[in-house]
Amino acid sequence: MPKGKITIDKELCKECHLCVFACKHANIVAGKEYNSKGYRPVCFQDDGKCTGCALCAITCPEIAIEVYRE
């Protein structure tokens, strides 16, 4: 199974949570800290299940997610 990893630009994230619903493995969760714009950006929980499918990046309207695959 391919392995993946994502990075989230916390300053671009506007807390829409579309990526949270798009992630098949529930690796993206709501964040608790605020960014400079007053939003609580999402966080990536790397538990080894991410396949790098990029559904999260495709659904992100702010283009705040970058996907990396091994």
Keywords:
single chain, 70 residues, alpha+beta, Alpha-Beta Plaits, two-stranded antiparallel ribbon, 2 helices, 4 strands
Structure description:
The protein is α+β, with helices and mostly antiparallel strands and 70 residues long. It has a single domain, classed as Alpha-Beta Plaits. It contains two helices and four strands. It has helices at residues 18-22, 55-59, and strands at 4-8, 28-29, 43-44, 65-69. The strands form two sheets. It has a two-stranded antiparallel ribbon. A two-stranded antiparallel ribbon has the order 2-3. The model has no long low-confidence stretch (mean pLDDT 96).
Main sheet strand line-up? 1-4
Structural class: alpha+beta
Distance between the termini: 10 Å
* Strand content bin: 15-25%
Instruction: Find the CATH topology.
Output: Alpha-Beta Plaits
Number of helices: 2
Number of strands: 4
Percent of residues in helices: 10-25%
Query: Mind telling me which CATH architecture this is?
Result: 2-Layer Sandwich
